[in-house]
Amino acid sequence: MPVEQQSRPRSSCPDSVPGQLVRQNRWVHETRAIPPIIPDTLCVTHPLPTTHSKSHSIPPYLHHRLFTITMAAETAASRTYTLNNGVKVPAVGFGTFANEGAKGETYNAVAKALEVGYRHLDCAWFYGNEDEVGDALRDFLAKTPSVKREDIFICTKVWNHLHAPEDVEWSIKDSLANLRVDYIDLFLVHWPVAAEKNADHTVKIGPDGKYVINKALTENPEPTWRAMERLVDARLARSIGVSNWTIAGLEQLLQFARIKPVVNQIEIHPFFPNTELVDFCFKHDIMPTAYSPLGSQNQVPTTGETVRGDPTLNAVAKRSGHNLGQVLLAWGLQRGYIVLPKSSTPSRIEGNFQIPTLSQEDFEAVQAVARTHRTRFVNMKDTFGYDVWPEDS
Ligand code: NAP
User: Fold this and answer.
1) Which of 120, 180, 228, 288 is the most exposed place for a label (fewest CB within 10 A)?
2) Which residues form a coiled coil (predicted)?
3) Ligand 1 contact via 326 beta carbon (within 6 Å)
């Protein structure tokens, strides 16, 4: 079962002138010039592909030889991308989804992750565990004075039944209270599906046991996006973005967005490389973010194959001297996007942060697996009663 289907809620730009981007706001404590955007082809001295230039015609992962050179001197901890609004984001984020009922699991995992050095947390209102993330963050910051709130990049998301403009604001305020922070670094619309709510902010379920879809807001997300933009204006969110958005959905959004989405968080792993959407995002200066980068725990329904059990991927891991998780995360970084591994196991939390650089041969071997697979593991159409990807069925 796709990982997010196992959960339910529990709780309650700046103008850009190349070379002259100047910001003065609460996120940047001093006024400073942000370095000019460096085209990918001139990236030799730059750690990783930063903002992808609009004239970008070659998919970023084809530049991986270059990235290989530049990544070698870095650690996962220092690797960042620059989003289309100038905000920097750590390339490796820690996934915080946890099965409902596993009380304390998220606290322990996030505490360990922060200790190991992760500085990017991927949360969601829907996961029902933002309070545990908040507790772990508060305790870590209290005992680690060298790290400040602003050193941690926090992403969270608004769930489907909270897409009405006033509910978008309610949602971020609820997340802020649970996370015990006063701003979110990145606030996402979790799915391009709007649903109805009950008076107590729970999801309204119809007689068929599925969500009651708000057709108007699903077909025209402009009111939702305007509410998201107001959160940036109100400085409750530094950046806004989307998740599970399709190319058609992004095209629609880009037509009316005053503030462009900075990321599209989507499923990406070698069994679902999502290449067309990844390329579209790069072309439009929207950073793809890979969820389920380790292939989650799922198997291909028709064959029973799993990412974990794939012989080619395991052979790459064996010959490179790294474990499979590290290989999968390295492949994602070398394709140029953010990766969000999740683990509740301390040794894996550590290992997933020690990401190597794949050789050309190993990168190509993973690419070959990706070219021959197309299985989406996360699709909540049976829960929602609405299919974002009817073409997959
Ligand atoms: P994932 O990170 O691909 O896989 C997590 C699973 O892999 C867990 O069962 C974990 O087990 C195991 N694991 C972790 N490291 C491992 C390693 N080195 N070797 C072997 N197994 C390992 O999948 P995910 O949880 O689906 O996705 C990650 C994050 O993406 C989520 O936590 C969430 O933040 C986000 N996400 C977002 C959406 C969305 O709609 N936007 C959807 C899905 C996920 P243990 O925990 O037992 O170690």
Assistant:
1) 180
2) none
3) no
For 307, phi then psi, to 5°, come to -60, -45
pLDDT at 380: 96
Can you spell out the DSSP letters for 2-29?
-GGGG-----------TT-EEEEETTEE
Q: What is the pLDDT of residues 325-384, one digit of tens each?
A: 999 999 999 999 999 999 999 999 999 999 999 999 999 999 999 999 999 999 999 999
What's the predicted TM-score (pTM) here? 0.86
Supply 81's token pair. 């991308």
Q: Which of 243, 292, 375 to mutate to test the pocket of ligand 1 (most atoms within 8 A of CB)?
A: 292
Set 127, 183, 291, 386: catalytic member? 127
Catalytic status, residue 127: yes
CA-nearest of 391, 389, 381 to 213 is 381
Average pLDDT, integer, range 110-126: 98
CA atoms of 65 and 63, how far apart (whole Å): 6
Please, which residues bridge with residue 241 across strands? 188
3-class SS of residue 241: strand
